[in-house]
Amino acid sequence: MPGEARAMEEAGLHDPLVDATEDEEALREQEAHEEELARAEDLASAGASVLRGETRLTQATANLATTIIGAGIMALPRAFATLGIVLGMGSLAGVFVLSLFSLNALVRVSRLTHRWSYHEVVAAEYGPSGLLALRLAIIVNNAGSMIVYLIIIGDMLVGVPPDFNGLLTNLLGVHDPSVWYVSRPVVLAAACLLILAPLLSLRDLGRLGPMSTAGVVIAGGFAASVVGVTGIAIAKGQIGDFHWLPTPDMMGDTLQHQAVTLLSVLPVISLSFICHYNVHPIAHSLERFSNRRMRMVVNRALVVCTCVFTLVAAGGYCLFGSATQANILNNLTPVGLAPIIGRPAGTALSFAIRLGYCTCLMATFAMLNWALRETVTKLLFNNKAMLPGPGFYALSYSLLAIIYGVAVVVPSVWTAMSVTGATAATFVAFILPGALILRVARRTHRLSTRTACLAGVCVGLGVLMGVVTLLNTFVLKH
User: Fold this and answer.
1) What is the pLDDT of residues 455-476, one digit of tens each?
2) 51 lies in a domain?
3) Which of 95, 288, 315, 429 is most buried as measured by Cβ atoms within 10 A of its Cβ?
4) At 366, is the pLDDT very low, low, confident or very high (cuts 50, 70, 90)?
């Protein structure tokens, strides 16, 4: 064999298997060399700002997971009630894959372009118009999400008509919203001043780590509670009328109707994974930053959140069946839990879930505000990342005041959120990352077939979800 190899070499021929192996090794060496060069250039040109963070790997993972786990988790059981368990899990897995790809694509694009900000990458690739579109999308998505979070916090603390069984009203024994100290405006104002304002005053994202970790633990506890109650219901034979596969009553009896229903539900699942606007701030705060460590943060956060989503969605749907409401918290009331675990345990568990969820939402509120404040600052103050001194606090509290005012005046913005979420959020999370990796990777000759296919799916599915949601909201329902 060695003689045959020498003869082939002398004749100018090469073994294709050896050539392929050598090409793969050369490609890996080149990629490792490019990554080392990118880090060296970052160190030289940016003062190593992206490499000198103080947030540990676990805290960075918790920060990203907290951004992901928000109000969307409470709508997932209803999504499963529409799709059935099998199709629901399949849709959840598909969105998980696309989210994993798009988040890692943003990190990869930053490495290839040596620009460690979502805004900088978009500005370099698409110019001022692309940057303006990104900033407006982030503002619409984050501000809208924060308004909804504040409304839900009000619902949890004060309750909803006609009973007003909120945490505060039950604790004080006052269920009349006309009493000033349990009215929604006063309670929300107190929550903003005492809890949210101090969180928004932090100038270091890493300092949100402890609360972010607590938020992830609370979300895990909530998932465990839903699974535990579901297990008790199964043992007692009190499980809901759930379906493994969708039925005509759930999705419609025609193929067109079923497709529209699926595409209308997908934004609910997709919005549960939105966190792309915080990837770069978390990368900046990560201790001993490297692409490998950042991929670990993304992968771990998505795996943890997907497990929590699956447990809550499947458990909640199995527990309440076709009676599952759009917000699963409306099912997890003392009245809804009493037949399964008894009145005292049901009251205690309902109280714990609502208190924990309020805490989780407040942590997520602070994370969303970070990206919103940074975007508004760059839009209004000539691309400054952060205002110095009093300007930072003035902008933070002004944004909080505007969001509070809208949340009080407009008690329900679910339709607006479904529209802005399926348009602005999918633009930030799917359409733009897919288009960026296609553009940058093709230019740098790093575009594989798998990457091109996933990027195309991100762009196509994002556009399709936006169009179908708009049509279904404004045309088909009227």
Assistant:
1) 999 999 889 888 887 777 666 5
2) yes
3) 429
4) confident
pLDDT higher than 50, residue 477: yes
**Closest C-alpha among 165, 148, 147 to residue 156:** 165
Which span out of 391-405, 412-426, 457-471 was modeled with the highest average pLDDT? 391-405
Which of 111-120, 159-168, 232-241 is the least confident region? 159-168
pLDDT of residue 14: 47
Closest CA to 436 of 95, 137, 141, 124: 124
Domain residue limits at 371: 45-476
**Domain presence at residue 358:** yes
From the centroid of its chain, how far is CA 426? 11
CA–CA distance, 76 with 92 (Å, rounded to integer): 9
Whether 4 is covered by a domain: the verdict is: no
Q: Which residues lie across from 286 on neighbouring strands?
A: 55
CB 14 within 8 A of CB 251: no
Lowest pLDDT segment from 40-49, 120-129, 304-313, 364-373: 40-49
- With cut-offs at 50, 70 and 90, classify the pLDDT of residue 297: very high
Residue 433 belongs to domain with CATH number = 1.10.4160.10
Q: Transcribe 231-298 into DSSP letters.
A: HHHHHHT------SS--HHHH-SSHHHHHHHHHHHHHHHHHTT--GGGHHHHHHHBTT--HHHHHHHH
Residue 306, domain member (yes or no):
yes
Backbone angles phi, psi at 55, to 5 degrees: -85, 130
Mean pLDDT (the chain, rounded): 80
Ramachandran angles phi, psi of 189, nearest 5°: -60, -40
Share of the chain above pLDDT 90, in %: 17
Domain count, the chain: 1
Residue 387 class from Cβ within 10 Å (0-12 exposed, 13-18 middle, 19+ buried)?
Answer: middle
User: What are the Cα distances from residue 221, in Å, to 47, 77, 311, 356?
Assistant: 41, 17, 11, 9
Cβ–Cβ contacts within 10 Å for residue 430, how many?
Answer: 29
CB burial string 186-201: b at 16+ within 10 A, e below: ebbeebbeebbeebbe
Token representation of residue 322: 């076709």
